[in-house]
From TrEMBL:
Enzyme Commission number: 4.2.1.46
Any GO BP annotation: nucleotide-sugar metabolic process
Family: Belongs to the NAD(P)-dependent epimerase/dehydratase family. dTDP-glucose dehydratase subfamily.
Cofactor(s) required, per the database record: NAD(+)
EC class: lyase
Catalysed conversion reaction: dTDP-alpha-D-glucose = dTDP-4-dehydro-6-deoxy-alpha-D-glucose + H2O
Highest classification ranks of the organism: Bacteria, Pseudomonadati, Bacteroidota, Cytophagia, Cytophagales
Source organism (scientific name): Aquiflexum gelatinilyticum
Keywords: Lyase, NAD
The protein's name in its UniProt record: dTDP-glucose 4,6-dehydratase
PANTHER family, sorted: DTDP-D-GLUCOSE 4,6-DEHYDRATASE-RELATED
Domain NAD(P)-binding: 6-320
Amino acid sequence: MKKNILITGGAGFIGCHVVQLFVQKYPEYHIINLDCLTYAGNLENLSEIENSKNYTFEKVNILDVEALTSVFEKHQITDVIHLAAESHVDRSITDPLAFVKTNIIGTVNLLNVAKSYWKNLENHLFYHVSTDEVYGSLDHGGFFTETTPYDPQSPYSASKAASDHFVRAYSNTYKLKTVITNCSNNYGPNQFPEKLIPLCINNIKNNRPLPVYGKGENIRDWLYVVDHARAIDMVFHNGKSGETYNIGGFNEWMNIDIVKLLCQKMDGKLGREKGTSEKLITYVKDRAGHDLRYAIDASKIQKELGWEPSLQFEEGISKTIEWYLENETWLDNVTSGNYQKYYQDHYGK
Ligand code: NAD
Ligand code: DAU
């Protein structure tokens, strides 16, 4: 059976890398990118593949069941890779309901449409892309594994945890073939500059303060976005139905150390005197309920599917900085208009 794969959220940061990989690597598949283009969705992310014969874009909101059903019928969707979501923790603190709508109701809509459209559920896969934040926060020891109990702490992670539970419930109750991956923090080209790394790159470039929450001692495990896309490719093709795979970079960093690394690298690239950008570091009010540490044990996907991160962090960070410096128009476009209002409301002047 020919595969017509629906990728949701394909105009966003991770989604655009997944769409690009699938369109280029699998010319025999038809890739349908479904995205309603929120502030985080951007078709400029897909300019390299937008004219490919095996690619179609559908501007649809996953809250619109009728439109979702039409897309399944029109393209005879065989499989789903679901990435569409509200993804920013800070926004979930100010507007939790938006996260309930897209991340929970939107996911259930998609499950329902897939379940009713697919006649023989055995032949189809519903792949749900999720986050390590569903496991809660770690102290300084230990790792999240696939069997760590869920303990979400923010409205964002609570909404993602609920969506994971619904996917498992559909697998158990209706025998839908599903797979879930829970990944750590991604960084790389095309990330919207509300997230720590691109926000700092943009602010260093423009000589603006670098807002570090609390003492900057929170820890995240960072993975280059293309390595996440490669993992999704492997799990989609070789993962076991009903399973969960954790994906992470084995790469823990304290926030303040990342911000300093960005400052050092950008001083070099911008020809500034050493130490110039570090003066921009500004400690600001901590995020409410800020999770201390995330760290993924990714040994299951390594052992069972042979996946490994391909890039070292310092190399990935250099490539990322270069991408943002070379794509000034992209950055200017996404930081004009509503971004200015978001920035002022969140960080003040
Ligand atoms: P993003 O915010 O950059 O992109 C989200 C995309 O979803 C955008 O293109 C947006 O337009 C689209 N979208 C949002 N609401 C929609 C709706 N109602 N209908 C249709 N489309 C909608 O997010 P991202 O960082 O690329 O994350 C993608 C997925 O990966 C999310 O499910 C997120 O939870 C998960 N994830 C992200 C990270 C990370 O570090 N960014 C890590 C692990 C997992
Ligand atoms: O762990 C996976 C998750 O990683 C994904 O599921 C989320 O979609 C993604 O947004 C990301 O969540 P974080 O909250 O960890 O990412 P963010 O870039 O917002 O923040 C990273 C760390 O930096 C976190 O400890 C908060 C801190 N931070 C963030 C911002 C935006 C700051 O100190 N200052 C800032 O201005």
